[in-house]
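Memo to structure team: turn this sequence into structure tokens by end of day. - J.P.
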Amino acid sequence: MTTPFSESHQQRVEESWRAELAGGLTTITVFVVALAHLLGGSRWLLLDMVAATFLVPLVLIDLRERRLPDRLTLGGFAVVLALVGAQGAISGDFAPLVGALGGAAATAGVLLVLHLASPSGMGFGDVKLGLLLGVLVGVRSVGLVLPALLIAGGLGALAGLVQVVRRRRRDVTLPFGPFLVAGTVLAVVITGH
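Reply from structure team:
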């Protein structure tokens, strides 16, 4: 028999473990991003490191709870867009800001159409995540929006197929946020941007 105290204690231990895992994964991800930039020499090091601090928790939350909190999706969008804007103000080159806005609009726009077509298939959190991810691809090239979305869709479809076969059921649903993040990262890495 368990007491309320033991359940509460167990819940605190689980929450503490999850927070430590999220913090550790975020730290490792930021380190890997920094290392990749140092080896590849990209001008978007700070932007990608800051974005990673939002994206890792978003992926973990979406996998666990199937939701993408506004404070991370919209907060991340605002912070990374402000960084791009600040860089433009310092350098006098606003082309990356224009690209970031175009990428955000295009990515979120495509995801919004999918959400409106099938609200149960694509959550509105994914649309808001599209703003953040669109900035990351748009500063490099608005032309990366379509490859990022296609890779995300392909990865999601493949994972869904694996789950259908594994569970022997066709009514399988998956959180799409992790696939959107993976598609964005792979599109940037594959194209060398």
